[in-house]
Amino acid sequence: MPVSVELSEAGDLIRIETEWRYKELCKSIPGASWNAKEQSRRVPLSWASCSALRSVFKADLQIGPRLAEWATNELASRVTPANELRDLEDYAGDEDLFPHQRAGVAIFTNNECASLCTSPALFKGSICLSYRTMRPKIR
Fold it and tell me: Does the pTM exceed 0.85?
């Protein structure tokens, strides 16, 4: 029997419908929990959860239409644009900043949630302050 995954009714979790023998595999996914009322496992709705499900269940995974639609939108609107900026070294913007700092500002402005993991002494404070002053103009 395949492992079926679909968005919960509220649209905030991924429901996992499967045989009991997959219990330990389901528990290996970060954030997985058992819902006794629905008699199903669930994981938080995130790109990381989708990747973990694909990795754990491989060919046995059957993705429901609502989850497939969410994943397609997430890939197009957040994951692909973020990956395209991953190796960015310069970006148009404030000429008072160094090229790598402008790139850091671009990463923050193009992502809803981002981490600034650059080497020490690269003036991360300038990046954060520049983004903070730009943010009201963006939103």
Answer: no
